[in-house]
Write a structure and sequence with these properties.
There is one protein chain. The protein has about 120 residues and is of the alpha+beta class. The protein has one domain: 2-Layer Sandwich (Ribosomal Protein S5, domain 2). Helices cover about 40% and strands about 20% of the residues. It has a 4-stranded mixed β-sheet, with helices on both faces. A hairpin with a 3-residue loop joins strand 1 and strand 2. The model has no long low-confidence stretch (mean pLDDT about 95).
């Protein structure tokens, strides 16, 4: 795969790790996304996406996953190293564009960093 993919090292694997983020992580909810953030002590940040059925059928859930992965991939420098992110979409993806997802993701990280000061 090329530079336009999200490598395996950037994905959070087993369900037990994702559950740990939901239990111990700090949650920040916006209009379109809820982001759970937990420091991971690794040299890279990792991503998990949980798209519930309430946001739509399989096509809508897969659209959310593509939008979130791309926003994460393109903003990995702004996100920085050392975070596990579990992202849950809140609304149907109709009318939502990648810049909206990027703004929501980066806003949640900014709120986390402010809370940790």
């Amino acid at each position: 795969m090329g530079a336009h993919t999200l490598p395996r090292t950037r994905r959070i694997g087993p369900k037990s790790e994702i559950d740990r983020i939901f239990r111990r992580g700090h949650s920040f909810a916006g209009r379109i996304l809820r982001v759970h953030i937990l420091p991971n002590g690794r040299p890279e940040s990792r991503l998990a996406i949980s798209a519930p059925r309430k946001v739509g059928g399989a096509v809508q859930r897969n659209r959310w996953k593509r939008l979130i992965r791309e926003a994460f991939r393109l903003n990995r420098n702004a996100i920085g190293p050392g975070f596990d992110l579990a992202v849950v979409p809140q609304v149907s993806p109709d009318g939502v564009m990648r810049p909206d997802v990027e703004d929501a993701l980066l806003s949640a990280l900014a709120a986390y960093r402010r809370a940790k000061r």
